[in-house]
C-alpha cells in the first residue's frame, strides 16, 4: 500500500502545483495558499533527480550519498536515545511502583519536564556539557542523545508504571501465598503483566527519540546529522529548492525505519498474548 | 493438638479499620479444627467473614487476636514453607504463560529444576485431565478448563492443604457440578485437606464432610453440620434423600444465624 499512497501524495503535490496560483492566494489579506513556483514547490521528479547529482559543485559525492551518511549517523544517535530512554523510563517506573513516595515526589517533575520546549534545552545542555569538560562540548551529538532520551523516557515511564500496577489482586495474592518477595513478584508477575502497556509506549518513545534527535541536530547544528543537513539545505533553498527535500526524505526514512523497528519489538513482545489485545 | 489436625483456629478475631476511623468486626471468637484429609465448606451470606477466615489461614492477612496454626506451625511459617495451595474465583492464570508453565509457577518459586518441574506438571495435567492442552495459552481454554488448571497449579507442589475461595462461582451450573465431582475425585486421589468457601448450599453439602455455617455482624460461626454422606459421592448423591436433608439442615442453620442481621448489613452498606 505504501507505494500507492506515496504516488497519491506525489500526484496531489503536482496537481496543486499545476492548478494553484503561482504567487499564492490570500483570503482577507492573509496568505493561506502556498505559492506554486518552482522555488516554493519543486517538482517531485526534481527532488529525486537532485538525489543523484553532486552535493556541491566539484564534489564527486552525490546528494544521496551525503544524505544517506547523515541519516545513518542520526539513526544511530536516535537508536541510542531510544534504548537509553526506554531503560531510564522502565527504571523510573519500577522505582515509582516500589516506593509510593517516589511516585509522589517524581511525577510532577516528569510531567513538567515534558512541557519544556527542547529547543530551549539544547543550548542549556550543551553549556552544561561544556562546564563538565571541554572535550564534551565539542561532542554535540551527546546533547542530541540527551534530548532524545528526554523525550523518549516519558511515555515509557508512564506506560510501564500503569502496567506494573495492572496486575490483578488475585494474582498478587497468589504470589503472596507463595511467599514471593517484591522483586520476585516484579519479575514473575508485575513485569509480564505490564508488557501490553509497555509495548505501545515503545512506539511513542521511538518516534519521540527521532524527533528529539533531529530537532536538537537542527538547533545545535550537530555535525554529521541529517537535522543539520535540513538546516543547511534550507539556507540554500532559494537557489536549490529540491535539495532541501532530499534531506527531508532522509529524515522521513529515518522515522520510517525506527517505526519498523519498534513495531517489530511490539509484535515480538505481544506474541502469545490474547488476540484481542493486539 | 493431635497430629491429625491440619488447621487449628483458636480464639481468632479480625478487626478492620475503615476510612473515618470506625472499626468493623469482621470475625469474632472463631474456633475451628480441621482434621487431616477432611473437606470443610465455609458458607454464609456476604460479609460473614468466610473469605477473611480463609485468608487468615493462608496468612495473607493477620488476625487481630487469637492464633492460627497449619500443620502444627504458625500460619506464617506454613506460608513460607508453601504448605498450602490456593485457588480463587478468578482462575488468576498468567496469560503470558502456557498451561504447563502456569502449573509450574509454584515449583519455579521453590527453585525446582526444569526437568523436575516438567515431570510434575505432566502429572498434574493428567490429574485434571488436560494432558492435550499443556502448551495451550490460558485464553484458548474455556472457563471450566482454566479453573482446572488453577487447581492443578494449587496442587502442583503436593501441598497437604488446599484453600479455595468460591473457585466455581463464575462457572455455569453444568460445568460447576462436573468440577465438583472432579474435585472430589482429585481429593480422594491425593488425600488433600480442603477448606472451601462457597455461597451455594448444595455445593457446600455435596463436597464437604463438614459444613461450617457463618453469619455476619459480627462475623462468627453459628453452626456446624456433619454431612455424613460417606466418601463415594456420585451424581446420584445429589438426588438422595439424605443429601436433601443435609441441604435443609444447612439452610435452617443459615436462617437461625439471624437473617435479620444479614439484611441489616446490606442496609448499612
Can you describe what's shown?
- The complex is a heterodimer of chains A (278) and B (269).
- The relative contact order of chain A is 0.13.
- The longest helix of chain A is centred in the last third of the chain and has 39 residues, at 182-220.
- In chain A, 76% of the residues lie in helices and 3% in strands.
- In chain A, α2 (44-52) packs across α11, α3 (63-98) runs antiparallel to α4 and α9 (182-220) packs parallel to α10.
- By secondary structure, chain A is mostly helical.
- Chain A has one domain: MetI-like fold (Orthogonal Bundle), CATH 1.10.3720.10.
- In chain A, β1 and β2 (30-33) form a beta hairpin.
- Chain A is built from 11 helices and 2 strands.
- In chain A, strands 1-2 form a two-stranded antiparallel sheet.
- Chain B has 269 residues and is α/β, with parallel strands linked by helices.
- Chain B folds into 2 domains: 5-83 and 159-268, P-loop containing nucleotide triphosphate hydrolases (Rossmann fold); 84-158, no CATH class.
- Chain B contains 9 helices and 10 strands.
- A 6-stranded mixed beta sheet of chain B has the order 6-7-8-3-9-10, with helices on both faces. In chain B, strands 2-1-4-5 form a 4-stranded antiparallel beta sheet.
- In chain B, α6 links the parallel β7 and β8 (193-198).
- In chain B, α3 (99-109) crosses α4 (114-127).
- Chain B is globular.
- The chains are: A mainly alpha (278), B alpha/beta (269).
- Chains A and B meet through α8 and α9 of A and α3 of B.
Secondary-structure topology with pairs:
The complex is a heterodimer of chains A (278) and B (269).
Chain A: H1 2-19, E1 25-27, E2 30-33, H2 44-52, H3 63-98, H4 100-113, H5 118-132, H6 134-138, H7 140-164, H8 169-177, H9 182-220, H10 226-235, H11 241-270
Antiparallel strand pairs in A: 1-2
Helix pairs in contact in A: 2-11, 3-4, 3-7, 3-9, 3-11, 5-7, 5-9, 7-9, 9-10, 9-11, 10-11
Chain B: E1 5-17, E2 23-35, E3 39-43, H1 50-57, E4 65-70, E5 73-74, H2 75-80, E6 84-87, H3 99-109, H4 114-127, H5 143-155, E7 161-165, H6 173-190, E8 193-198, H7 201-207, E9 210-215, E10 220-226, H8 241-256, H9 259-268
Parallel strand pairs in B: 3-8, 3-9, 6-7, 7-8
Antiparallel strand pairs in B: 1-2, 1-4, 4-5, 9-10
Helix pairs in contact in B: 3-4, 3-5, 4-5, 7-8
Amino acid at each position: 500500500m505504501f507505494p500507492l499512497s506515496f504516488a497519491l501524495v506525489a500526484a496531489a503535490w503536482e496537481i496543486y502545483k499545476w492548478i494553484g496560483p503561482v504567487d499564492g492566494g490570500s483570503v482577507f489579506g492573509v496568505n493561506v495558499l502556498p505559492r506554486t513556483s518552482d522555488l516554493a514547490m519543486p517538482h517531485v521528479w526534481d527532488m529525486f533527480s537532485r538525489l543523484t547529482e553532486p552535493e556541491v559543485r566539484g564534489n564527486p559525492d552525490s546528494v544521496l550519498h551525503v544524505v544517506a551518511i547523515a541519516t545513518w549517523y542520526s539513526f544511530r544517535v536516535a537508536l541510542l536515545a531510544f534504548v537509553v530512554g526506554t531503560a531510564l523510563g522502565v527504571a523510573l517506573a519500577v522505582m515509582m511502583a516500589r516506593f509510593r513516595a517516589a511516585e509522589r515526589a517524581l511525577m510532577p517533575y516528569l510531567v513538567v519536564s515534558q512541557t519544556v520546549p527542547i529547543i530551549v534545552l539544547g543550548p542549556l545542555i550543551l553549556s552544561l556539557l561544556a562546564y563538565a569538560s571541554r572535550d564534551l562540548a565539542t561532542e554535540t551529538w551527546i546533547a542530541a542523545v540527551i534530548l532524545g532520551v528526554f523525550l523518549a523516557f516519558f511515555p515509557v515511564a508512564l506506560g510501564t508504571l500503569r502496567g506494573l500496577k495492572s496486575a490483578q489482586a488475585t494474582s498478587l495474592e497468589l504470589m503472596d501465598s507463595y511467599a514471593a518477595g517484591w522483586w520476585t513478584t516484579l519479575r514473575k508477575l508485575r513485569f509480564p503483566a505490564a508488557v501490553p502497556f509497555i509495548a505501545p509506549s515503545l512506539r511513542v518513545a521511538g518516534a519521540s527519540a527521532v524527533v528529539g534527535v533531529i530537532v536538537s541536530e537542527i538547533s545545535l547544528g550537530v555535525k554529521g546529522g541529517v537535522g543539520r543537513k535540513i538546516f543547511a539545505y534550507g539556507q540554500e533553498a532559494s537557489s536549490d529548492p529540491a535539495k532541501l527535500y532530499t534531506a527531508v526524505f532522509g529524515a522521513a526514512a529515518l522515522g520510517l525505519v525506527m517505526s519498523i523497528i519498534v513495531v517489530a519489538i511490539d509484535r515480538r513482545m505481544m506474541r502469545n498474548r490474547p488476540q484481542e489485545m493486539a | 493438638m493431635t497430629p491429625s489436625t491440619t488447621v487449628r483456629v483458636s480464639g481468632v478475631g479480625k478487626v478492620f479499620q475503615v476510612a473515618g476511623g470506625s472499626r468493623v468486626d469482621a470475625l469474632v471468637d472463631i474456633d475451628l479444627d480441621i482434621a487431616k484429609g477432611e473437606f470443610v465448606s465455609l458458607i454464609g451470606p456476604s460479609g460473614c467473614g468466610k473469605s477473611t477466615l480463609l485468608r487468615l489461614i493462608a496468612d495473607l492477612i493477620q488476625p487481630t487476636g487469637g492464633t492460627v496454626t497449619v500443620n502444627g506451625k504458625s500460619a506464617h511459617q506454613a506460608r513460607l514453607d508453601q504448605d498450602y495451595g490456593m485457588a480463587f474465583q478468578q482462575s488468576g492464570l498468567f496469560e503470558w504463560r502456557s498451561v504447563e508453565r502456569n502449573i509450574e509457577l509454584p515449583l519455579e518459586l521453590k527453585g525446582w529444576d526444569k526437568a523436575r518441574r516438567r515431570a510434575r506438571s505432566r502429572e498434574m495435567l493428567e490429574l485434571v485431565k488436560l494432558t492435550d492442552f499443556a502448551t495451550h495459552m490460558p485464553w484458548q481454554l474455556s472457563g471450566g478448563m482454566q479453573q482446572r488448571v488453577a487447581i492443578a497449579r494449587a496442587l502442583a507442589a503436593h501441598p497437604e492443604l488446599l484453600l479455595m475461595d468460591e473457585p466455581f462461582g463464575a462457572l455455569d451450573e453444568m460445568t460447576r457440578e462436573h468440577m465438583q465431582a472432579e474435585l472430589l475425585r482429585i481429593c480422594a486421589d491425593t488425600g488433600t485437606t480442603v477448606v472451601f468457601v462457597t455461597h451455594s448450599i448444595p455445593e457446600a453439602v455435596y463436597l464437604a464432610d463438614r459444613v461450617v455455617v457463618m453469619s455476619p455482624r459480627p462475623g462468627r460461626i453459628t453452626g456446624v453440620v456433619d454431612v455424613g454422606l460417606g466418601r463415594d459421592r456420585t451424581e446420584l448423591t445429589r438426588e438422595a434423600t439424605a443429601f436433601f436433608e443435609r441441604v435443609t439442615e444447612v439452610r435452617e442453620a443459615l436462617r437461625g444465624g439471624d437473617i435479620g442481621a444479614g439484611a441489616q448489613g446490606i442496609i448499612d452498606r
